[in-house]
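Example 337, ligand nicotinamide-adenine-dinucleotide.
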Amino acid sequence: MHILVTGGAGYVGSATSAYFLAAGHRVTVYDSLVKGHRAAVPPEAGFVRGDLADQGALEVLFQTHRFDAVAHFAAFIEAGESMQQPGKYFRNNVAYTNNLLETMTRYGVKKLIFSSTAGVYASKDEPLCEDDPLGPANVYGETKLMIETMLRWYNRVTGLQYAALRYFNACGAMLAPDGTPIRGEAHDPETHLIPLTLQVPLGQREAVTIYGTDYNTPDGTCIRDYVHVEDLASAHVLALEALANGRDRMVYNLGNGRGYSVREVIDVAREVTGVDFPAVEAERRPGDADRLVASSERISRELGWEPRYPDLKQIIRSAWAWHTAYPHGYERDEPER
Ligand SMILES: NC(=O)c1ccc[n+]([C@@H]2O[C@H](COP(=O)([O-])OP(=O)(O)OC[C@H]3O[C@@H](n4cnc5c(N)ncnc54)[C@H](O)[C@@H]3O)[C@@H](O)[C@H]2O)c1
């Protein structure tokens, strides 16, 4: 199939593009590079630089390519920023997704895989199932929930088949079979715990900050479920197959079913890097839920998804390999934009 990958120059989209290609599909990435990196896009993929805001460019894209499916990663992803600039998130994530959906409808492209998030749920002590109560703690999570609602209506009105994949915390790096890092996390600004933590032993940051130590968890710090980026990528390949087989309206969690507190992640990072680096405690940030841990039983049962890298130490080892090889991300080998 020929797959349009929006946001395919970003962290999860570039890894998934590589997985689609390896599964024998054709990939065209559409990305504005507002956040992503041209160098992250697999060389075998087509690349069109453009923004989902630009309806004319989208029209040309669909006129000049015949897509069988779309994997939609493009979004702003910083929960903290979304609590300061809600309009930026409603516009980019929700309104521009509607541009994409309208264009897909006009060109008869009926299959979509959407990057949703654990942030659509209300916090809960037990692993979260897809039917558990929803209740985003921040605007970013709300934008993803709004898009899931749009997808249900597009399905009903236009027959769009979709899979909304609710990722828990994406992490880790893609390594070649010989262990050479290929692509990894390079957000700017970086807001994710594992890369922020690894910046300390790399000498790029004096200490890692723990935001909030009075959450309703055993050690007082937030608990999250960390899922390797390659395991997210493999789930997209399975979702695409399911769409090709006629499934629609799929909603799946993607996580490992095990939660780690911020303090636990930092301890594992100290162990992996062999550096006893400092952590400092700070006030809570707005918009952080106490605990988000996935039950991914539904996608395992229905699509046969099995994470290959469920172990946090293994995840952090792969991230460490990437960050030590590319301490400044893709910067150095970035071609001209
Ligand atoms: N990283 C995570 O832990 C995580 C967790 C849950 C869900 N998600 C979702 O997965 C997706 C990918 O996340 P990521 O970590 O790879 O983010 P990322 O920032 O690395 O990638 C997003 C990409 O989208 C592009 N983009 C943003 N707005 C655009 C627009 N209007 N037009 C064209 N391109 C645009 C950016 O340039 C970037 O390359 C996002 O939708 C995010 O909400 C990520």
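Summary: The longest helix spans residues 86-106.
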